[in-house]
Amino acid sequence: MNVPASELWRHLRGPSLFRVPGRQIRPLFVSALLHGNEDTGWQAVQAVLRQHRATMLPRPLVIFVGNIAAAKAGVRTLPRQEDFNRAWPGTPHPDTPLARLMRGLVETIRRETPFASIDIHNNTGHNPHYACVNSCEETHLHLARLFSRTIVYFEHPVGVQSAALATICPAVTIECGRADEESGVTHAAEFISSVLAIHHFPDHPVPDGDLDLMQTFAIIKIPKDASFSYDGTDADFRLRPDLDRLNFAELEPGTIFGTLGAARSRRLDIVAAESKRAVGGYFEYVRGEIRLSERAVPAMLTTDPNAVRLDCLGYLMHRIGRDGRRIAEQQTRRLIGSSS
Ligand SMILES: [Zn+2]
Fold it and tell me: How far is the CA of 160 from the centre of ligand 1 (A)?
């Protein structure tokens, strides 16, 4: 149990499930290392178990350790592997070996009638710790609120752990900042401990003022054949070096993301989060500057070129009500005004 994520391959042949006994009947399900270079979840589980070396856990912990081979290599996913957080039930490719493994795993977990499920991740840019849910039912929001008041509701991508588990029990994905930050481990371990300790979720709704509920509406991509830089060197997109500092800020129209290269000919690809269709909008290009053209809250903006190429530059979100509807921006501004 003291083995670092990169050394788990010496002890485990592949994805593995552990069960640690506890006093209550219904277990807490935790998954870690679905992405091999995101080891905060594994470290948090280790921290919780270390605290309970001499005492029994309040409830059983069922732990799934995912991509051990990628953890050995220190990467999210190995080149020929499927993404371990896109192969859960709900994936459009249910017949791959990994999808079959995940389906069997979900059935095993279902029989355990889990109390709740937590999937633990890191991201590459500067982001606050936040929780993601696939359902706005109160128990799911209560679970997420124990980790953060910032909660992102999402339906895409599909095939993710929390969407599959949300059909069984309250489920959450937690984003714990960068993998090398100790604060993420501490926060995730405290969260696991507090969920282990509660007997049941409150019957009353989470008060509206207790959470910032958001949804991703658009994905920002750099066209595959375009170049980009963060240090001002000439490229199609010269992005500001502190781009990730904008994450989770309520941005006004006119906020500058960077400048266009000498040719000034390229445009960012803006894709709708739900339909994956190119939608345009959100940015305007004025005198070579790349400016936001409407209010939005960005998330996961990254300054890691690999993350940009593998995934995207970042996401644009809006505040939503628990009915899933976007809150009008004027109302949003009043909310911000009253809370500051
Ligand atoms: Zn991840």
Answer: 10
